[in-house]
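Side project, low priority. Logging it here so it doesn't get lost.
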Amino acid sequence: MHLEATLAGAYYCDLGVLEREWERIFQRSWICAGREERAAAPGQYFTLAVGRESVLVVRDRDGHLRAFYNVCRHRGARLCPAEEGRLKGAVSCTYHAWTYSLDGRLIGTPHLSGGESFPREDFSLVPVALETWGGFIFINLEGERAAPLAQHLGEAPERLKRYPLASLKSASRQTYEAGCNWKILVENYQECYHCPGVHPELCDLVPLYRKGIVDASDSDVVAYFREGAATFTRSGATRRPFLSGLNDAEKRKYDGEMIVPTMMLNLFPDYVQYRVLWPLAPGRTRIVTEWLFEPSTMAREDFDPGDAIEFINMIARQDWTVCELVQQGVASRAHRHGVYTPQETHSRAFKTWYLDRLENGATPGPQKPADR
């Protein structure tokens, strides 16, 4: 049996590697920035840290979502230090009060000598590419040089076309930190070899996972629920109606997509949950997750997302515990690299995708996702 080597330990522990990742992967990839509803009204905004860069996402007066580097064109001051808020028609720098419209144009330079001849049109905010899919906002720091989002998503939109993603609303948004490298979390997500020992509750709901096998897109390996289970809750039961538009198979299974580099999209018959990873340090990752439901379900008097939130968080804590143990181990001088078993083919494929982008600086395209 041939066992391919994993990444060497330094890839998970070295700050220099993370610096290259920020430059060659995170600043050249389409990154999920969250849901459109977070900036639903004109003037609503939020900011994101992408490596050492800060990005401002805002809804302009015409209702269009826009993204910019969160940097004033005068002296480089950060424009919006808050994580989110509401702007009153424009954004003004607190340093010298240069003011920009919500579409990024410089519209005010108060107290500037000779300001009537100043070429404001040359000092608009630097744009960040922004596209949406299924109610999700994606940004790409390459700006006009970014390839279309559709190219990055590959076949995922077609596979998930019956899920009403665009109309779903968030019932809960939570943020965590895990003491491990972001790639350890991705590799963990793409295999279920660990499931029998780490996730007994998950294996109770999906018999396939008792074999340590992960379901895969475009294959006959499907994560069907056991008899009597219909979703990811402790009991497998739900009082919520199923999402509209699903076919019979989708009403009986769990589905998922790994949208590289860091979006994990989990789909169930009655709700959708996703998380996005934001590397903070070689051994520290910020994780943002949301639980999405149909508005008609959320309007019911008996609506309570607590069972879905509780189950997903339980599985996540199980994962993060073992991932943090991996982080501790790969830092050892005794660890040169690990190996991928036959059940970890998708983790191995992620390694190939990752090294191609990191070493060659290529513009990322889609990686064939695994379902889990």
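Brief comment: The two ends are 26 Å apart (CA to CA).
Revisit when time allows.
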